[in-house]
Design brief:
The protein contains 12 helices and no strands.
C-alpha cells in the first residue's frame, strides 16, 4: 500500500519501514525496561537489544513487520505490569495483532499476575478472554480469508527430523546466558518477569507441535524483551538489592523504577 500510494520504489519503502520500526522498537523497549530499572540500566538493556537484533537479522531478509510487533509487545508487557485498564490492554492486543501473533500468551499470564494482586477470579477470567480474543482476531481472520491452514513449506521438520546439532549450536549461545542469570537470580526478580519466562517452554512446545524447525533463532525473537529485562533487573539488583523486594512491597504490585540505576 505504501509503495503504491507514495510512488517510491519498493526497496526504499522497505528501508523506511525498517528504520521506523527499529526506532519505535528501541523506544518501546526502553519504556518496557523502565518498568523496573532506571535510565542508565535501561540503556544497557537497549544495547543488549541492539546487539541481539544485529546478530539475528544482519544480512537476513525477515518479515518487514517483525519489529513493529515486538514494539507493541513491549508496550503491552509494560501495561500489564502497571495495571492499565483492561480495555486499553485489549486495544493494544488488537493493534499488535495486525502485525504479530506471539503476544497471544500475554492475556493468560496477565490473568495469573492479577490473582495475587486481589483481582477476583471471574473478573480476571473474562478480561483475559476479551484480551485473548482481541489478540487473535486479526490472525484468525487472515487465516480464514486465506482459506484455512498454512501452506506447507521447506521450514517444516518433525521432531525426529530436527537437526539437533544445529539446534544446540545456534540456540544455546542465544539462550543459555540469560537462562543462567534467571536460574541464579530469578527468585529476586519481579513476579511478572518470572511469569514471562514461561514463554520459553511454551514457544518451544508450540514449534514442536507445528513441526517448525527449532534451529531458526529468529523465530524465538519474542523472548528478547524477556531476556533483556532479566539482564537489566539483574544489573539493577546488583547495584540496589532492595529492587528484589519492591515488586511485592508496592500496593499495586508494580514497582516504580529506581532513579539512579
Amino acid at each position: 500500500w505504501a509503495h503504491e500510494t507514495s510512488g517510491e520504489s519498493l526497496p526504499n519503502v522497505l528501508y523506511a519501514n525498517t528504520l521506523l520500526s527499529l526506532v519505535l522498537l528501541m523506544l518501546a523497549h526502553h519504556f518496557w525496561l523502565r518498568t523496573w530499572v532506571g535510565t542508565r540500566t535501561a540503556l544497557v538493556g537497549g544495547l543488549a537489544l541492539g546487539a541481539l537484533a544485529n546478530v539475528l537479522f544482519l544480512t537476513y531478509a525477515h518479515h518487514p513487520y517483525e519489529f513493529w510487533g515486538v514494539a507493541g509487545f513491549c508496550v503491552l508487557l509494560r501495561g500489564v505490569e502497571r495495571g492499565w485498564a483492561w480495555w486499553m490492554l485489549a486495544l493494544l492486543c488488537l493493534v499488535t495483532g495486525l502485525v504479530w501473533e506471539k503476544h497471544a500468551l500475554v492475556p493468560g499470564l496477565g490473568g495469573l499476575l492479577q490473582l495475587p494482586r486481589g483481582t477476583p477470579f471471574l473478573a480476571s477470567l473474562w478480561r483475559g478472554l476479551v484480551m485473548l480474543a482481541a489478540a487473535l482476531a486479526v490472525p484468525l481472520l487472515l487465516r480464514w480469508q486465506l482459506g484455512g491452514d498454512r501452506v506447507a513449506f521447506g521450514g517444516l521438520s518433525h521432531l525426529a527430523l530436527q537437526e539437533w546439532d544445529k539446534v544446540l549450536w545456534f540456540q544455546l549461545p542465544y539462550v543459555l546466558p540469560f537462562v543462567g542469570i534467571f536460574v541464579l537470580r530469578g527468585r529476586r526478580m519481579p513476579v511478572w518477569l518470572r511469569l514471562l519466562w514461561l514463554y520459553l517452554p511454551v514457544i518451544v512446545a508450540a514449534y514442536i507441535a507445528q513441526a517448525f524447525i527449532l534451529h531458526e533463532v529468529r523465530s524465538f525473537w519474542a523472548l528478547v524483551p524477556v531476556f533483556t529485562a532479566t539482564l537489566a533487573c539483574w544489573l539493577a539488583s546488583a547495584a540496589d538489592p532492595a529492587l528484589a523486594t519492591r515488586d511485592e512491597a508496592s500496593p499495586d504490585g508494580a514497582a516504580a523504577p529506581p532513579q539512579g540505576t
